[in-house]
From TrEMBL:
SUPFAM superfamilies: Outer membrane efflux proteins (OEP). Keywords: Lipoprotein, Membrane, Palmitate, Signal, Transmembrane, Transmembrane beta strand. Residues 1-25 form the signal peptide. PROSITE patterns: PROKAR_LIPOPROTEIN. This is Efflux transporter outer membrane subunit. It is a lipid-anchor.
Length: 463
């Protein structure tokens, strides 16, 4: 075979190398989830765009929270690791993709040999291709595709990490605001009870109040003092959690001022959001790419059962003297095709295929589980959405009624119409109602954040 024929054969082989694939044609996904969302009340003020297209700056209205989220996205170490994992996966894909094209290298070599014969020297300088595999059955291409899908999966994981971070910062910020408000309520109640205790002690000394009444008033004071100490510790812990999420010190001006405001500028869920929105969740997208990667690995494992052809070729110069290496008449070339046919591998190839198939089945189960988990999380948040709105309205009415009852009970006690036990019960009811109102407000706002997260919002930002 002359040189032209060799080059023609190599070109034809390379052209044919992308014509075969052994990847399974399709993989049936059966997540077994209901076809419809749980029945919910449609919100007339709902956003009309896709939830995943609502950037977190559009969703969170408080500028302090926006600044804190921005700081967290820049400095949080877990998110930084997720970004670096994407860079690593991109580099691994580029390494794998490089096997699909010939690698050209220059080589210089000196060979000295001798024995019973005189010592001889041979010098050569070559430029060529070494062990380039003709991808006749798609093994190299499938490995490259698997690496590409892993890169896509890591990119989706990075978006999922960002989504989780945004939600965690918002919830931590809300929790700090709620505990700060609980602390303020406890301190105000403690001050009121201490005033009442001083008055009761004075009345007790004059004989107008019994020892039981004095002890009951002290019980109220110590209960409120215990709550002050407890909420002080919780506020300190909440702040530490925010510092960790933000990746560094936080400006006091970014902290909530002891209140729970409406953090969502828009409702998280339009009344007619389709169930397909779950497929846009980053964690579901990551599971899908992992499944596609495992499917491509099956094609690579199947291709290993078939013969492989690799090419080695070079052109250059060869001479017995280094000084004459590039003189006329020293040109040399070589073309070395190599055929490898697997005959006996001790079951290695079949075991590799079994591993690839099992990995695909695991990835399929994880993908279906990701869809199921997403549906369950969204269904839970939807179920609480209207319920918490109703609870909040009812709790606000309860606080108003309890405060009114306390004022009336205090007036009747001062007038001598009610016992101190009735007043004591009214005070406890009003204090508990105010604490429950703060807890309900926190649950309602946290559920809005959770619903926004589980429907795939929060990672996309349009500037």
């Amino acid at each position: 075979m002359n040189k032209a024929s060799c080059l023609l054969a190599a070109a034809v082989a390379i052209a044919l190398s992308s014509c075969a694939t052994l990847v399974p044609a399709s993989t049936e996904v059966a997540p077994a989830i209901p076809a419809q969302w749980p029945a919910t009340r449609a919100d007339s003020g709902a956003a009309t765009v896709e939830v995943a297209d609502i950037g977190w700056r559009d969703f969170f209205s408080d500028p302090r929270l926006q600044s804190l989220i921005d700081q967290s996205l820049a400095n949080n170490r877990d998110l930084r690791v997720a970004v670096l994992n994407v860079e690593k996966a991109r580099a691994q894909y580029r390494i794998q993709r490089a096997d699909r094209v010939p690698a050209i290298a220059a080589q210089g070599q000196m060979t000295r040999s001798g024995g019973d014969t005189p010592v001889t020297e041979q010098f050569s300088a070559n430029l060529g291709v070494v062990e380039f595999e003709l991808d006749l059955f798609g093994r190299v291409r499938n490995l490259s595709q698997a690496a590409l899908q892993q890169y896509f999966a890591q990119a989706a994981n990075r978006r999922s990490a960002q989504l989780s971070l945004v939600a965690e910062v918002a919830n931590a910020w809300l929790t700090l605001g709620a505990d700060s408000e609980q602390l303020a309520i406890a301190r105000a109640t403690l001050a009121t009870y201490e005033d009442s205790l001083r008055l009761t002690e004075a009345r007790h000394q004059l004989g107008d109040a019994s020892s039981l009444e004095l002890s009951q008033t002290r019980t109220l004071v110590e209960t409120a003092r215990t709550d002050v100490a407890r909420f002080s510790g919780q506020v300190a812990q909440d702040r530490n959690a925010l510092v960790l999420l933000a990746g560094g010190p936080i400006d006091d001006g970014l902290l909530p001022g002891g209140e729970i405001n409406q953090v969502a500028a828009v409702r998280a869920l339009p009344g007619n959001v389709p169930g397909e929105v779950l497929l846009r969740r980053p964690d579901v997208m990551a599971a899908e790419h992992t499944l596609l990667s495992a499917n491509a690995n099956i094609g690579a494992a199947r291709a290993a059962f078939f013969p492989s052809i690799s090419l080695t070729g070079s052109v250059g110069s060869a001479s017995s003297a280094l000084s004459g290496l590039f003189d006329g008449g020293t040109r040399a070339w070589s073309f070395i095709p190599k055929l490898t046919v697997p005959i006996f591998q001790g079951g290695k190839l079949r075991a590799n295929l079994g591993v690839a198939t099992a990995d695909r089945d695991i990835a399929l189960a994880q993908y279906e589980k990701a869809i199921q988990s997403g549906f369950r999380e969204a269904a839970d948040a939807l179920a609480l959405n209207d319920s918490l709105d109703a609870q909040l309205a009812s709790q606000q009415a309860l606080v108003a009624a309890a405060d009114q009852a306390q004022r009336l009970s205090q007036a009747r006690y001062d007038a001598g119409l009610d016992s101190f036990l009735t007043l004591l019960d009214a005070r406890r009811t009003a204090y508990t109602a105010r604490q429950s109102l703060v807890s309900t407000q926190l649950a309602q706002q946290s559920n809005q954040v959770a619903l926004y997260k589980v429907l795939g919002g929060g990672w996309h930002e349009r500037g």
